[in-house]
Amino acid sequence: MRNPLRTLTVLVLAAAGAALTGCSAPAVSAESTPAAAIRVGYFDNLTHAPALVGIHDGLLQKALGKTKLQTTQFNAGPAEIEALSAGAIDAAYIGPSPAINSYLKSKGQSLKIVSGVATGGAALVVAGDISSAAELKGKTIASPQLGNTQDVALRYWLNKQGLKTSLTGSGDVTIAPTDNAQALTLFQAGKIDGAWVPEPWVSRFVVDGKAKVLLDEASLWPGGRFPTTVLAVSATFLNAHPQTVKALVQGNADAVAALKDPAAAATDINAQLKADTGKPLEDAVIQRALDHVTFDTDPDAAAFSTLAKHASAVGISTPGSLKGLFDLTALNTVRSAAGQQPASSGGLG
User: Under a CB-based contact definition with an 8 Å cutoff, are residues 302 and 265 in contact?
Assistant: First the structure.
């Protein structure tokens, strides 16, 4: 028989923990148990390096214990969000914009962001004869996928430069959502004029494609810091298995810590990329890419309201409240144990 006093104690402690972290506590059942398995999505990008290292070094599986880690690779966030929303995966290493769009479309029911992963590491790369925004008129620029984080950033920046775009590809600048690898091939063949991409694709365009960086996105943000990747989980999974989510957050934190050693990081990232794609990155590419990305479990929550406004301004999402988007309860327990300051939910917990 369920003990009413024990159940009440569990709920009170959960609420108290949420108050301390500035996040709402999940609706945890007293009988909740670790999941038998957790299905995690990620990209083969440098901005997802904690996933790559966490998988290769076994850090995610170690933290998860008896819960089996199952992984799936994606090219860009919108497709990954579709999988999360459909219940095909339980957690996702993902860019902010698709997470925001999903949260707003579901009226706060689809997911929670539970940790940061990476900041920085995105830029607009162009052909060598382009030197200004004005020279982009009439050009074709690729983004990884319609509605992904770099796609929104590209559209918003172009509009601020007085260059019209549309979701159908017309306008002063044609935006062509294209798989990153294909975009590089098209650029090398002279069929597109540039791309707004995350690392390591920025560095691949520069090193392999002889492109130049017209704009580093860091120049658009205070202190040069902007969120590129976060760790999101299905709200349903979080409610059913908070212990498993906490273990995943711990494994991600362990992977972020492992990335403090650049030499070891490059080796382990390349090993996982080779396992996933059959080909590691060249030394010049991976070293350049790592120089432009910072790995941190703090999700930079304060930037999300701005990101939501950008997405709304370019027609990717509709305005709405982001209150409750973050649940940093597990993260701040992990950060406290590591002697780190708690991460803020920016009023969105």
Answer: no
Q: Which two tokens stand for residue 327?
A: 């649940």
3-state secondary structure of 260: coil
For residues 237 and 231, give the distance between their C-alpha atoms in angstroms, rounded to a whole number: 14
pLDDT in tens, 242-256: 999 999 999 999 999
Distance CA 123, CA 44 (A): 17
Distance of CA 254 to the CA centre of its chain: 17
Name the DSSP class of 279: -
How far apart are alpha carbons 31 and 303 in whole angstroms? 36
> What are the strands, taking DSSP E only, across 238-301?
293-295
Q: What pairing do the DSSP bridges indicate for beta strands 227-234 and 111-120?
A: antiparallel
Those residues with Cβ within 8 angstroms of residue 261's Cβ, 6 or more apart along the chain or in another chain: none
C-beta of residue 87 within 8 angstroms of C-beta of residue 201: no
| CA–CA distance, 91 with 111 (Å, rounded to integer) | 9
Question: Pick from 340, 114, 89, 346: which is nearest to 232 by CA?
Answer: 114
Per residue in 310-342, pLDDT (tens digit) is 999 999 988 899 999 999 999 999 999 999 999
Q: What is the DSSP string of 5-74?
A: HHHHHHHHHHHHHHHHHTSPPP---TT----SEEEEEEESSGGGHHHHHHHHTTHHHHHHTTSEEEEEEE
